[in-house]
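Give me the fold.
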Amino acid sequence: MALHLIPDDTHVGFIPRRRLFYALSIGLILASVALLAGRGLNFGIDFAGGIVLEVETAGPANLGQLRADLGGLGLGAVSLQEFGREDVVLIRIQRQPGGDEAQTAALEVVRAALEGDVADYRRTELVGPTVSADLIRDGIIAFTLAMLAILIYIWLRFEWQFSVAAIIALCHDVVITLGVFSLMGWQFDLSTVAAVLTIAGYSINDTVVVFDRVREILRKYRRMELGELFDKAINETLSRTVITALTTLLAVIALIALGGEVIRGFANALLLGVVIGTYSSICLAVPLLLIFGVGDRTAGSGGNAAGEAASGADTDAEPG
């Protein structure tokens, strides 16, 4: 039995409300940019530098006890995770104010706190600002290349108007996600960068589904007014979009509830990305096509009212 959270024959008027969506999105983007410029991001050890230790315990590591011991040292953010084996733990501590001497002093404090718990120090590293700057640069390059690849893909598959609308929607998703991270003070590290790239993939998948339906209906209803046509495409894919988002959110919420602190930033970014990406696919990407326009709809057209009605019957038989 098929699941129908939303009826197949919905007629929600998204396009008539597009100016409201534009205003909401512009407001959120401006607020996010102001937050990023004013407060910035709470960079994790990967970007801000710090101390990294890989230790081996005598038996299975008690992460809760280790986290409590190190958290009470007043060294700021401390991250612990099992590293391949249950008796090997990767410990990351944020960079301490001051130069190398401050990092060395903090390392000695950590070693003293771990005395009796650790059987062997497998690795000890002080991550400096140079390495962090390299990671920031690599993250920006990775994101830029991902956006460029998506731009080219959408351009080749559809038309340039679709690719520009999709990229604007993607950048909208990413900027607002980063803005929420800045507002909440959540830690931003390499796992968050991975989540942002995952968000881009999720959002573009949703957008391509709606664009596919727009293109299909453009071919069948050559005389239909564009706003009405876009609304029809969004409504025909609405059930699929909402069900996909809800099932994805169930998995993400499970990660937040059960995944622990190690992947909390990754899961938070995914949660925001799914919600914002679903909104932008429905309320932003397609309405933007009204601004950029679409290609020549009349070329090769032999359509007429009767033909459109017949095509409409075919379309209704192929729900998104």
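The CA atoms of residues 236 and 320 lie 6 Å apart.
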